[in-house]
């Protein structure tokens, strides 16, 4: 097995671990960027204990809250779509952040973003194709449809984004005469 194949196998088998490492890196990078801009502005960080609402993480900056579903893919990965829970898409401040990372060191390469403004729900995905349950099949061998989930194509995401650009996208910069420091 090649080194790359070993990493990809480990990424598949340990996806929860990988996502957890990447979430911590993302949060640390965002907090560091906000600190660089204004050390008096806190980034409030809340983890979702139960994954039944569609989001993994809630970030708050000033009066703005972002409910974030985190997805991850390695930089050479070919994921063409990401599954999103319909109820989650209707929440104000909901968004999906894809962390694109190196496969060998789990370093963040860049981010992809799908969502609207912090005070709005994400753009509607109601008419998108229903997601298919990975690996599970019915008695006839067909994959089961996940009626409460929709696929969002990768090309609908904004990016590639740097950490600074993701922070701006999540919480807004220079809207309605604001400076960077007033954005959150």
The class by helix and strand makeup works out as alpha+beta
Q: Kindly report how far apart the N and C termini lie.
A: 48 Å
Tell me the series of helices and strands, N- to C-terminal: HHEEEEHEEEEEH
Radius of gyration: 17 Å
Number of strands: 9
**Approximately how much beta-strand content do the residues carry?**
25-35%
Q: Indicate the low-confidence ranges by residue numbers.
A: none
Number of helices: 4
Number of domains: 1
Average pLDDT works out at 89
The largest sheet has its strands arranged as 1-2-3-5-6-9
Shape, per Cα inertia axes:
globular
Helix content: 25-40%
Biggest β-sheet: count, sense, barrel?
6 strands, mixed
- Quaternary form: single chain
Which short descriptors sum up this protein?
globular, six-stranded mixed sheet, 9 strands, 26% helix
What does this structure look like?
The protein has helices at 3-13, 15-37, 86-89, 163-171; strands at residues 44-47, 57-61, 64-74, 81-85, 94-101, 108-115, 130-137, 143-153, 158-161. With 184 residues, the protein is α+β, with helices and mostly antiparallel strands. It has one domain (3-169).
């Amino acid at each position: 097995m090649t080194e790359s194949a070993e990493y990809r196998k480990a990424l598949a088998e340990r996806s929860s671990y990988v996502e957890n490492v990447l979430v911590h890196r993302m949060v640390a990078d965002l907090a560091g960027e906000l600190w660089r801009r204004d050390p008096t502005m806190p980034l409030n960080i809340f983890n979702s204990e139960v994954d039944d609402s569609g989001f993994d993480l809630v970030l708050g900056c000033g009066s703005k809250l972002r409910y974030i579903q985190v997805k991850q893919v390695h930089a050479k990965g070919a994921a063409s779509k990401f599954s999103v829970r319909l109820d989650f898409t209707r929440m104000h401040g909901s968004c999906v952040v894809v962390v694109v990372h190196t496969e060998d060191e789990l370093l963040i390469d860049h981010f992809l973003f799908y969502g609207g403004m912090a005070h709005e729900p994400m753009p509607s995905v109601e008419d998108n194709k229903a997601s298919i349950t990975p690996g599970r099949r019915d008695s006839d061998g067909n994959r089961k449809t996940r009626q409460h989930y929709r696929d969002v194509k990768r090309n609908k995401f904004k990016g590639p984004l740097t950490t600074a650009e993701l922070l701006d996208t999540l919480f807004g910069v220079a809207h309605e005469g604001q400076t960077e420091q007033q954005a959150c």
